[in-house]
Known about the structure:
Elements: E1 10-22, E2 29-36, E3 42-48, E4 59-65, H1 76-79, E5 97-108, E6 113-120, E7 123-130, H2 131-134, E8 140-147
Antiparallel strand pairs: 1-2, 1-4, 2-3, 3-7, 4-8, 5-6, 5-8, 6-7
Amino acid sequence: MSNLAAGDAQLFEDTFTITEHDQSKYDRVARIVATSTDNQTTMSLDINTELFPIRPGVNVEVLLATSLSLDGNKDEEEEKGWRHVRGESTLADMYDYVCYGKIYKFEDGDGQTIRAYISFGGLLMQIEGPYKKLTPLRVENAYLLIKK
C-alpha cells in the first residue's frame, strides 16, 4: 500500500486486471469484473464509461478511502462534498475516476472470505476477498479512486 493517505483513511488498495466488460443494459454504464493481480480478490463495478472508458485486459489501481486529504484527515470542507475541498492537492488529483458512496452490506463467503457491497449513487460495487485484506472495510461513507 502507498503511504499517500495516513492513518485510517486508506481502507483498501489493490491492482486489478479487468476480465469482463458488459455495457448491454445502459448506454453510458458498464459493469466490469476484475481480479486482483495476486488472484485473491475479485470485484464487480458499475462504471460510467463516458468518464472512464475501460476494456478487458487493462490493469487499474483501486483505492477505497474515507478522506481525500493527503494527510488522511477529514476537514470540515470535505464533509460538504469532495468537490469543495480547499484549493490544495488531494488524492483525487492523482486518480482518473473518483466516486463517493457508502459501504452498506457485508456477507460471509466460504468462511475464509468476505463480500462487501458499496453504492456510489446507484452505481454498485461488490468486492470479495480474504478477511485479512478486507478487514478495514466497515459500514461508512467512502471514496472510490481508480487510475490506469
